[in-house]
Design a protein that fits this description.
The structure is a homotetramer. Chain A is α+β, with helices and mostly antiparallel strands. The first copy, chain A, has 2 domains: 4-61 and 197-299, Beta-lactamase (3-Layer(aba) Sandwich); 65-195, 3-Layer(aba) Sandwich (Beta-lactamase). Helices cover 47% and strands 11% of the residues of chain A. Chain A has 14 helices and 8 strands. Chain A has a 5-stranded antiparallel β-sheet with strand order 2-1-8-7-6, sandwiched between helices. In chain A, α1 runs antiparallel to α14 (286-299). The longest helix of chain A is centred in the first third of the chain and has 14 residues, at 65-78. The first copy, chain A, is globular. The model of chain A has no long low-confidence stretch (mean pLDDT 93). At the A-B interface, α4 and α8 of A face α4 and α8 of B. Chains A, B, C, D: It is an enzyme of class 3 (hydrolase). Chains A, B, C, D: Belongs to the glutaminase family. Chains A, B, C, D: This is Glutaminase.
Chain lengths: 304, 304, 304, 304
């Protein structure tokens, strides 16, 4: 029997002195002003047990982690029609690059680069009258926690500074890969990214991906095949242009965000969420990456 | 003594049967509905003589030709500070590509790719309270014709469909190479491109570039050095990714627009404007290119 | 208990009528003249059991599958020093493209694009007096079969037509990422790719990667961590620019070759080799890809 | 009447103190060991007069300047068939980049990037039994000087270190845009670049391009149209990715080489050659560029 609690406490102890070494995202004040001392880990085992250490109960901006959640919401609705508008290949490029998008006629490489996530957001806007509320309700249900909410200041700041996303959305529109108005789609997208969740809430929300599609309440949210596919995309594309490195060092499907959060999981076993706001040069949490590497080494649990 | 009138009449006769072979720009209805039968040539000699044939007195949408005019307005104001925000190298890429722009940190390759022209437009918006009126007055003075005006429907259609330009402007903004609001800059830019002029008006407006900077009224608009530099940029960058071909086949500095117009000039000798709406696959007037090639061959006048 | 033998027989039956739909590699006569009717599957279970159907005992050219074997030979020798000369990120580009290589100063994206495999070959040449014999002995030992050999005609044909590889090797040399002579390194590389093996021999040779580093004879060839890392690279980079698709559809680490072979594996469970020479447009065996997709669907065994 | 002798003496005086500021090409010892103090200018007027100052009579390695000479030799033979194997557009990229070449299916952008010049060399090898002797004889005739010769040590050093050129040639071969053996073509190419000439000899050799195709001895080497076309290519592509800058600052067709030489010309007026081994970061002679800029400013002679 693996002592999960002991292991994450050891990791927390080992790494907490390195917390200040990364750089916090600086493009909006709400992220820049986060206390870099925050460091939390939360594990949700498939058998229902929870293990946690540090600042696992403080909400933070989930940012790009939301892309995996919006994909999981849209996939059962649009099914394979999604893949007519984007691909599932790693991008091999930093996350904000438009170059490949243009060269490839506005077919985003995968649903986790910004352009791909914007197309997913476009599907949300096309399919739902009130996509923001639908998405928020979905995340609350998955996490079994009605307190989860948007940080409207973050959404507003993203809107005021998100020129790269406006560029991407307009490029998609220019190539007929965006059905709705650029402003309407991005309004949803910026709110989706601006949800705040704790490590615990994220571990719970992603439980379905470790549990063959069934969420915490054992309700089938995804077919087994859909869960498997999202996991595959998380492994190959979940960490910007550091996806190969993460698969290599950690060996788990996962998704990171510039708010400093990382969610990872081992099918049939557990989900794990780490939060530490300091980022490495690729935009992934520096301490979170190390914590997950230590976790798979110490538990000897990885997909490989 | 060269018989300019005879030469352009011969060229007009030779080519008029090929008029229908190109394709008219189709992205906005105002351009798409142009009668492809239009074909005009107008030559303005440095000695004041004019020669004309065909539809030289019908106004058409000058589109990208306006980029050379806005550069000529901004250059005496901003001088070399312009080149801190863009380069003077050929792009080697189609005119709407954002890739290079992103790879090169939003320093546009030259003032004639859309992104470069948008930066010039940004300078207009920064420097003038009413840039649209200033630009229109400037063009009217150069052409000595107060009837020149914007086609507001064209400007509106460009705004409604110009997603590629919105993408470029937002990308410039993301990299801090745009001082003003994206919408404000593009509003000016779309009007600048939507001016309508005749072949004669264009030949007159560009007279200063063949005349060492002095316009039709012999007023110094540009220093000799500035005129020379704009000519150099027109030669190397004036025809999208067909600039080398134009230099090779025609051998004159020039600028084309998707409205089917081409202005070209030989310093100390003449300006020449052709108009035929059918475009080749690179977006340059098919018949216009041929007419200019014939013109330099028959007159034996080129810079090379 | 899963009926592996029944499952692969069903798959073989289901797919054998589609055998002729792919295209055989045509760049060298030895590959072009392969009988496309060949179709074999071989499974080696971690418990020692074997299951096989069709042409599993006919040797074929392993081609790029050899890249995983050479990496496994070099990794315990050079250890992390390997990653100073190449990366572990997916390339996001077709397998023969030099562009990224040049843009990234000759640091190949991963050990499975040709340029990366050539750097691994360079390490072999630097470290061993007779790298060809060392490599052959290694493969024979892993497979427990001394009959395995090079096809010298294939190696010779590759040398006479491998201009793309010469281009890559010279580019590496130009950027100081090749220690030995281009010709010497490529001579080894072409032989490495020209080894012929059966499905059974490949399933046996890759056994160590499903068995935490211990080969068929239970000798430790790789540390557990090294085996895990090679698996991670196979998952993210093993199928040219179709790696994401393979992870998505199949969900196993694996490696393909233009000879029509594919090896895949599930750690702790099995290795599986398929062979069908007809390729899809990405250069992977068309029927092999489908067979593996059916296999993971029917057995419900994948890493996700 | 312009005082050419006085002007170039002034320029020489003005710039000689800046001679040491550039960096000498360091990839082969023969170029690296050049005395950076060398600085020569030579003007050949269309009327037959010559003007010279400084080290105009010392031979130096012409390097890429030879590309314009080989093009002028091949053009009358292959005529427009040349343009089926390469284009005439500026590359917009540094001179040794293979990326565009690969993306564009091995059609070099123009005859002055290395890949394009290698295709021209391939034509020489296809058409002549002894292309090296033919080329040397051609250059000697143009310059009216039988003392011109290869520097065999330079050719040998280029061969031993020219991995980038081997990469380009192999890539061309891979895409069927090279008829002969890579080694044979590059042997010619390295010798072509290794010719040594003085400023005077270069001014004389390029006389035909300023004289409508007729060489110093008034023999027609090129048709007027062919001369015009080579001039057009020199203007748009003659200075690596600084061609736009050169057109902008100098305004003359020209060609530079990493040996520190630059040849430029004004049709109907003159050829001018400068030599100063220190290079700027783009690989063009730092002092040579400045000297030519001063020359066109002081004489007020440029094509624009």
């Amino acid at each position: 029997m693996i002592d999960f609690q002991g292991i994450i406490e050891d990791i927390h102890e080992d790494l907490k002195n390195d917390i200040n070494r990364g750089l916090v995202a600086s493009y909006i004040p709400e992220l820049f002003n986060i206390d870099t001392q925050n460091f939390g880990i939360h594990v949700k085992h498939i058998n229902g047990n929870s293990y946690a250490v540090g600042d696992w109960s403080i909400p933070f901006s989930i940012q790009s982690i939301s892309k995996a959640l919006s994909l999981s919401l849209v996939l059962p609705i649009y099914k394979d029609a999604i893949w007519e508008r984007m691909d599932v290949e790693p991008s091999g490029n930093p996350f904000n690059h438009l170059s490949l998008l243009e060269l490839e006629n506005s077919i985003p490489r995968n649903p986790f680069i910004n352009a791909g996530a914007i197309v997913i957001a476009d599907m949300m806007v096309s399919h739902f009258k009130n996509p923001k509320q639908v998405f928020l309700d979905y995340v609350r249900e998955l996490s079994n926690d009605q307190t989860i909410n948007f940080n409207y200041n973050v959404a507003k700041s993203e809107r005021l500074t998100g020129f790269g996303n406006y560029a991407a959305a307009n490029l998609l529109k220019a190539y007929n890969n965006l059905e709705n108005d650029v402003d309407e789609v991005l309004d949803f997208y910026f709110h989706q990214c601006a949800i705040e969740m704790t490590c615990e809430q994220l571990s719970n929300a992603f439980f379905m991906l470790a549990n063959h599609g069934k969420c915490l309440q054992q309700k089938e949210r995804l077919t087994q095949s859909q869960a498997k596919r999202i996991n595959a995309i998380m492994l190959t594309c979940g960490f910007y242009d550091e996806a190969g490195e993460f698969a290599f060092e950690v060996g788990l499907p996962g998704k990171s965000g510039v708010g400093g959060g990382i969610i990872a999981l081992l099918p049939n076993h557990f989900t794990i969420t780490t939060w530490s706001p300091g980022l490495n040069e690729k935009g992934n949490s520096l301490i979170g990456m190390k914590a997950l590497e230590l976790f798979t080494t110490k538990t000897n649990l990885s997909i490989f």
